[in-house]
Design a protein that fits this description.
- With 287 residues, the chain is mainly α.
- The chain has a domain at 22-214.
- It contains 11 helices and 2 strands; from the N terminus they run ααααββααααααα.
- It has helices at residues 7-35, 42-60, 63-84, 93-115, 140-162, 164-174, 176-181, 186-212, 218-233, 238-258, 263-277; strands at 130-133, 136-139.
- α2 packs across α8.
- The termini are far apart.
Length: 287
Amino acid sequence: MIDPSLIFPAMIDGLAFAMLLFLIASGFSIIFGLLGILNFAHGAFFMLGAYMGVTIFQFSGNFVLAMIGGSLFGLVLGMVVEFLTLRRIRGNPIAQIMLTLGYLLIFTQIVLIIWGRTPYIFYPTGLTGPMIVFGSTLFVYRVFLIVFGLVAALLTYVFLTRTRLGTIVRAGTEDSEMVEALGINVKKIFTLVFGFGTALAALGGVVAVPWLAASPDMGTTWLFISLVVTVVGGLGSFKGAFYGSLFIGILHTLSEYFFPQVTFVIDFLAMTVILLLRPEGFFGEKK
């Protein structure tokens, strides 16, 4: 039987989980939508961001520094990976898949060597503990995740649609030769975009730690669920990443509350039904 008193806290947890999904899925969608790169190492950047956040927080005790440091690490590492390897196989999806899957395995082994298998967790000051809302007990940090995710979504949307750099990026994906003719180095812009996408994933990893902890298997787990979100929302669509995250995040959490034995089955079943009804996803373009 479903306990009606659990529906409201389940929805809040679902929204918090959805915002974590959005941070990783939006980066994946931006990289594919703007650069055409299938980055199957994206979950690894989420994982590495989590561990870097843990390390910075252990030394500083400052959650903001952990978020900034984890994001910058994801940005720099993503740019290095794109510049040294992925740039050379752009347009070759099979090579992209194999190479990025290789990075996922390599980065996971690096995490095991440096941090081991023991999960790590920390608790930001002022964002822990319960709160009572409408007679239901909620956790402060999960409410924070909802607000943080919405702000991140708004800022990312403004960057892509309302800034000069965002305009250059979108123009470069449509006609890179024309943009190059204007004196703009499109390759550098694309490297920055790839780094921006991996920075979003790393940021998601940092803010996930106080709730879900950092563990070596989170890269693979979150890669698969972010792929479900991306496919449901529409491959390469930023709007699709947002609404797909809401849909899968709430569905996943409700099933965890009320049908925990079949949580991931429900996620993939929902993806299957949506693909049968609308193969391009919620906001994907028909090919």
